[in-house]
Amino acid sequence: MSDQERQAGGTGELTEEVDLVVVGLGPGGEALAQGAAEAGLSVVAVDKHLVGGECPYYGCIPTKMMVRGSDALAEVRRAPEVAGEASGTPDWSVVARRIRDEATSDWDDRAAADRLRDAGATVLHGTARLAGPGRVEVEGADGTTTTYRPRRGTVLNPGTRPSVPPVDGLAGTPYWTNREAVRATEVPRRLVVLGGGPIGCELAQVFARFGSEVTVVDHGPRLLGPDEPEAGELLGEVFADEGITVLHGASLIATRHDGSIFTSTVEVDGDTREVVSEALLVAAGRTPNLDDLGLDTVGLDPGARTVPVDDRMRVEGVEGLWAVGDVVGHGAWTHVSMYQQDVALADLLGRDGPPARYHAVPHVTFTDPEVAGVGMTEHAAREAGLPVQVGRSGLGSRGFTHGAGARGFVKVVADADRGVLVGATVVGPAGGEVLGLLALAVHAEVPLATLRSMVLAFPTFHRAIGTAVGDLA
Ligand SMILES: Cc1cc2nc3c(=O)[nH]c(=O)nc-3n(C[C@H](O)[C@H](O)[C@H](O)COP(=O)(O)OP(=O)(O)OC[C@H]3O[C@@H](n4cnc5c(N)ncnc54)[C@H](O)[C@@H]3O)c2cc1C
Ligand SMILES: NC(=O)c1ccc[n+]([C@@H]2O[C@H](COP(=O)([O-])OP(=O)(O)OC[C@H]3O[C@@H](n4cnc5c(N)ncnc54)[C@H](O)[C@@H]3O)[C@@H](O)[C@H]2O)c1
Q1: Where are the alpha helices (DSSP H) in 242-392?
Q2: Which Cys pairs are S-S linked (predicted)?
Q3: How many angstroms does the Cα of residue 282 sit away from the middle of ligand 2?
């Protein structure tokens, strides 16, 4: 207990003065709390679940272990076309064990919490809420409440939870979200996936390759709606070839569970059909954890989907409050949360540093082929009124030599007036790695003339970027 600690008048609650309170320890909040503590601030870091947030325990890391397993199986199945017979029997227990033991330590955050404590932060497991300007209440697991008065300020990093649409009969059934999917110990014989976004696509392909009969139900006209349309269309063809059924323009309108089997009613183009499955994964977007954060006590709207911030991650209109991560609405990816915490940390420590910019945010959906994008799509660039040029390429000589599994393309979007790329998409094996060069080009606004003068190694996948840039028209 600090020297400043004192009993709040008559309430039995403790009130403590500290430098900084971090509410929610997703990737951004955890790193920021550590950085602030290492810089000498007294930091209280609070999470109501696991230190590290969604990414290490239920998101990026365990799902990429699933993807690694399913990609290995796919390569074994491609062997006859490029190397000769090879055999591999899918064994989900290998994936489940890696997730439990290597990724999540059986969903135990002691190592992460200790790392923060070693840096000097006070780590609390509890629910934190704003309690008026300059005050944060933390309700501990034992029901006690402590009120903190942070001298420097408060950082919000509460993240999101799965959105669950109001489907008739769904509540009360043992449906999965990403949280249950990463804890699966068996592969369901049949799986319905609600949602054809990144979560739905990655997990649909994983479970299909491990033997599930998968049906994806999605509102939209193609998979991965916000990406370039060519990307979602190609991925749809790959899914069809792998035996995954995708229902577009479809809504799950009802489901029932008889103790072991889901029977789901899906409306597609005005018709209804029933789909039977052992598991039902809801991957239909995310809900920001802003509704129980006391935002109204500082004049903010608790019903909003995002917290408005400036380019230093300061919450607009509220002194001493910063926000980072999915809830600020500049991309729900770990690298964005981490980027923003750097900006916020510099600001709250009074250090110089560049403001947050979002013109070159990359993202990668780890399907096979990977779907990777940076900056604007062609549609977004046209909507922004830019004089747009587009260039395309297949995967070139490397795609040809690679053979089985080499499906994809490179698409680049340029601002003709400025002579720079404003966006790019790579679909293909290691598409996320190939994107790196394009992310640099968009970020640094490299002149097209400079890009055209590059020597690109033969025969690499990234050499297709040269062809796409040469195709700009
Ligand atoms: C299945 C899946 C796969 C993904 N794969 C990738 C990927 O490959 N690459 C990528 O970049 N991104 C991926 N993401 C997204 C990524 O997980 C998030 O963008 C990332 O976790 C950053 O989120 P965040 O920092 O906003 O907070 P989160 O990680 O959501 O953490 C927020 C934390 O705040 C806590 N909290 C909330 N409210 C309170 C409160 N009132 N008091 C105390 N604590 C509170 C929560 O318990 C949680 O620990 C994936 C997400 C999912 C679901
Ligand atoms: N590799 C990665 O970087 C990665 C992987 C997974 C998740 N994520 C992050 O997590 C976020 C959430 O992922 P997500 O896939 O849940 O959400 P999403 O919002 O990106 O996609 C949800 C999909 O579900 C569909 N949908 C929503 N409600 C529906 C309904 N009632 N019926 C039919 N279809 C419906 C939407 O049309 C959309 O295609 C992503 O946007 C991304 O930022 C990133």
Answers
A1: 334-348, 378-383
A2: 55-60
A3: 9
State the chain's maximal CA–CA distance in angstroms.
79
Residue (of 107, 132, 134, 136) closest to 124 by Cα position: 136
CA distance 392 to 336: 28
Number of structural domains found in the chain: 3
Find out whether 34 and 8 touch, Cβ atoms under 8 Å: no
Does 174 share its domain with 263?
yes
Assigned domain for 86 exists: no
Tell me whether 0.95 is exceeded by the ipTM.
Answer: yes
Residues in CB range of 439: below 8 A, 6 or more apart: 360, 362, 374, 424
Q: Which of 268, 284, 300 is the last residue of a domain?
A: 284
Same domain, yes or no: 397 and 256: no
> Is any atom of ligand 2 closer than 6 Å to the C-beta of 202?
yes
**Ligand 1 pocket by C-beta < 6 Å: which residues?**
23-28, 46-50, 53-55, 59-60, 63-64, 127-128, 157-160, 178, 199, 289, 293, 325-326, 332-335, 337, 366
Alpha helices in 351-411 (DSSP H): 378-383, 396-402
The pLDDT value recorded for residue 79 is: 98
SS3 of 257, please? strand
Q: What sign for the dihedral angle of Cα 224, 226, 232, 235?
A: negative
The answer to whether the annotation marks 53 as part of a ligand binding site is no
The pTM of this model reads 0.97
141 alpha carbon – ligand 1 mean position (Å): 21
pLDDT along the chain (473 residues), means of 10: 36 80 98 98 98 98 98 98 95 98 98 98 98 97 93 98 98 98 98 98 99 98 98 98 98 97 96 98 98 98 96 98 98 98 98 97 98 98 98 98 98 98 99 98 98 98 98 98
